[in-house]
């Protein structure tokens, strides 16, 4: 293996730059050429490449976003698109790819490898943490802290006005952010897609907390929650059924994807980048690097895309007890 391509794909996540830096510097360490691919698979299709050197990734470990840009490529979903991508790999002598992204990016990588036999290693980079084979994805820890700090601020105004806030956090299919931030920010209720306890239960809990003397409350709602109501409808529902509450809604949105990565995400990204390049150099392909029990491990890429890890039931119990 003489030349490795690196790209970031799908939704960006804080720490992606630290992962790029790690891949580039590990290549330099082993004297392998490294090429950056702009805008994920779309850049691979268009041949939008840049040579990467150890010094070229100075001063990026602390930066949010991704210097290589990111995209969700519809063209790569087509055979013709993937053929163009393969032609570019051949033309530029790219022997293997490191794909930093989420499950959609890994699905594309598996198909591409099956069709054209290009060696691929995945690094999980998404704030959602919804990847099987790792306890933490790059960006998740930073997003947790961003969301928690935002909710702390919302609590200041909630308690000043004796209000109830519904706060929507990201997580299209998974409730990792909502559950952890909910516990960390002391939320009254946490609504996640994995555990639909019904709206009645939420009303009961809010009623209880009002009568127990609480003046303000926060309900954290995961974007992918399965209650059947969006965050605004939930607010209306509570106002109708519990008129004693004055309700407001706050959707945190893309703020959770930005910002300087936490120390945890920088270290994780650095470790994963080293392992990804070393796997390619050892001739091991179609794997995703992950973290388990603080050790860097690997999972078949095909399994990594099959689903998220389990939600932590203990945290649900802790949250219940904390709202007593
Ligand atoms: O996958 C990460 C994520 O931030 C999800 O939590 C969210 O649903 C989605 O991306 C938003 O995607 P986009 O930035 O394309 O709107």
Question: Characteristics of this structure?
Answer:
alpha/beta, 11 helices, 324 residues, binds 6-O-phosphono-beta-D-fructofuranose, Rossmann fold, 7-stranded mixed beta sheet, 4-stranded parallel beta sheet
Reported for the largest beta sheet, the result is: 7 strands, mixed
Structural class: alpha/beta
CATH class of the largest domain: Alpha Beta
Strand content: 15-25%
Report the total helices.
Answer: 11
SSE layout and pairing:
Layout: E1 3-8, H1 16-29, E2 33-37, H2 40-46, E3 49-52, H3 79-91, E4 96-101, H4 103-116, E5 120-124, H5 140-160, E6 164-169, H6 176-184, E7 189-191, H7 199-211, E8 217-222, H8 231-241, E9 247-251, H9 263-281, E10 287-292, E11 295-300, H10 301-304, H11 313-322
Parallel strand pairs: 1-2, 1-4, 4-5, 5-10, 6-8, 6-9, 7-8
Antiparallel strand pairs: 2-3, 10-11
The structure holds 6-O-phosphono-beta-D-fructofuranose.
Summarize the structure.
The protein has 324 residues and is an alpha/beta fold. Helices cover 42% and strands 18% of the residues.
């Amino acid at each position: 293996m003489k030349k490795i391509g690196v790209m970031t794909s799908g939704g960006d996540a804080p720490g992606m730059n630290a992962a790029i830096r790690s891949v580039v510097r590990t290549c330099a360490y082993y004297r392998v050429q490294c090429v950056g691919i702009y805008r994920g698979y779309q850049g691979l299709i268009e041949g939008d490449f840049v040579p990467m050197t150890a010094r070229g990734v100075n001063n990026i470990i602390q930066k949010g976003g991704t210097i290589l840009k990111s995209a969700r490529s519809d063209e790569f979903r087509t055979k013709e698109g993937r053929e163009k991508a393969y032609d570019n790999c051949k033309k530029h002598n790219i022997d293997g790819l490191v794909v930093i992204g989420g499950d959609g990016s890994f699905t594309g990588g598996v198909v591409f490898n099956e069709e054209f036999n290009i060696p691929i290693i995945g690094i999980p980079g998404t704030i959602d943490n919804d990847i099987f084979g790792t306890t933490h994805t790059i960006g998740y820890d930073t997003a947790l802290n961003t969301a928690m700090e935002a909710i702390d601020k919302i609590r200041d105004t909630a308690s000043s006005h004796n209000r109830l806030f519904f706060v929507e956090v990201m997580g299209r299919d998974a409730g990792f952010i909502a559950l952890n931030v909910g516990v960390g920010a002391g939320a009254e209720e946490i609504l996640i897609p994995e555990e639909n306890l019904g709206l009645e239960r939420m009303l009961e809990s809010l009623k209880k907390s009002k009568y127990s003397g609480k003046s303000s409350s926060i309900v954290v709602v995961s974007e992918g929650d399965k209650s059947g109501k969006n965050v605004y409808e939930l607010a209306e529902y509570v106002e109708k059924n519990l008129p004693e509450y004055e309700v407001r809604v706050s959707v945190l949105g893309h703020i959770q994807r930005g910002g300087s990565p936490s120390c945890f995400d920088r270290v994780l990204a650095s470790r994963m980048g080293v392992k990804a390049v070393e796997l390619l150099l050892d001739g091991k392909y179609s794997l995703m690097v992950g973290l388990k029990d603080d050790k860097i491990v690997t999972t078949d890429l095909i399994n990594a895309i099959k689903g998220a890890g389990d939600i932590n039931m203990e945290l649900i119990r802790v949250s219940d007890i904390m709202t007593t």
